[in-house]
């Protein structure tokens, strides 16, 4: 970026015991120079003063109509964080970075340079004047007072102007005054719908099948609720249907909650950015059924991540196969002793001794200390096959859920992942799972958890709870817990069977189905196609071979005629319709047979001639 074509902004902040302030120097492309001194009416650290100076200077440039700004500062922190080279971890620094980038987004071009302090002396002097009480600076430069920090959240009153009113306005009017629409059909429909609603203590509730009463939420409350459940402290950016179900289980209702939840998820930028990629499977899905809570766990390790506080770079993850309850702990090291400590503190002490734990073949798991530790408690340690790592798929699914949630929650502040793990786990534990139809929290403790959204927008059970009967209600829930778990077992088995069938249809053999006969049919079709291609390529060779067969057959017939005239019967003369190779072999036998016979007779004659002295009666015997 060229300085002559852009606004040059030089800033510096100063913090002292007497106060804090900022110095700003602006050079316009036309050569005009503007000097400002900003006194802070609030205490600020040196880094906060640097950011206040940068944000105030950027606001001035935008107000002056600047489109391209080159900012120079001697703060390595400000320049590094605005460039993305440094990571902001403290809450106030994160807010300052977001505020600065919000103003930078209004510019067409922006660049920040870190310069030495000696090259920033003029602006440094202006900031020192602002933070000093002993020097009177009135009349020297333009003075301004900043009363509050730039990142201070201001309360904004929003008036909801909705001329049509809320969706339940006519229902409330009919319940209170008996007013009906003029249209007879609309009036009949309203009377029919009103049977499902009731007013209790000036609140409209809907009767439902899942819960006794659901609080009817307004449009503004619905948006606030979806935002809190989807991306708040108890949200993991779940899908549209799961979002609607979680709001329903929390005790809320509005007429278009399913469609609104799905539209809200479709508009979520992070859900689009970190959506999972679905690949085509190559093998059948083999589901693993575990029908007892907290008896079988799967474990894995995530990382390395960006280094968090305490040097933590890894995450140890454990998940129960039945309830889907996830335990996770950030750690700096992933040695065997740390794994033993995690199993003891996070699994055994909290949920009892499990029957089995499934690991992969990591050196932290497949080692003697872990095997000896589990053998002492008679816990079966199972390792997934190297050729089939999917056998520890439950732990891999937990890893995927945690990673997706962290990606959507952290944005660019990756170093805060360790602090976000408890919120991610809580959101996962309080979300209903499709496989069991219940949340892990309810399958573990028998009751539904109270969500933050129920505190901000109190539901029926929150507003009308009776503390004296709370303990008795919890005991009753525990009595019903075995029945709830039994239903979850049956649903999980049915769900896994259905998922297996749907999964296996997408296998590489899905064109011909799942049966062996279908695969055989496919192989026969491939073989037939290859045979056709081969036939086309050797068609000319077949024609040449037929011509050769005819020539050999004519030769055989001629030889047979010759031998028959000499009184000899030809041996093994094949018919003219045999293969060419076999015919040529027979021709060679017919041709060599007379020569072989003559050779034998000649050999006998020579032997007799050599022994004529021993056999005088053979002398003169005519052999030829």
Describe this structure in words.
With 624 residues, this protein is α/β, with parallel strands linked by helices. The protein folds into four domains: 3-146, Nucleotidyltransferase, domain 5, CATH 3.30.420.10; 169-272, Endonuclease III, domain 1 (Orthogonal Bundle); 296-498, Ribonuclease H-like superfamily/Ribonuclease H (Nucleotidyltransferase, domain 5), CATH 3.30.420.10; 541-610, no CATH class. The protein is built from 21 helices and 15 strands. The strands form three sheets. Strands 5-4-1-2-3-6 form a six-stranded mixed beta sheet. The protein has a five-stranded mixed beta sheet with strand order 13-12-11-14-15, sandwiched between helices. A hairpin with a 2-residue loop joins strand 7 and strand 8 (203-207). The longest helix is centred in the C-terminal third of the chain and has 36 residues, at 470-505. The protein is extended and about 145 Å long. The N and C termini lie far apart (118 Å). The model is unreliable at 508-516, 566-578 and 612-624 (pLDDT under 50).
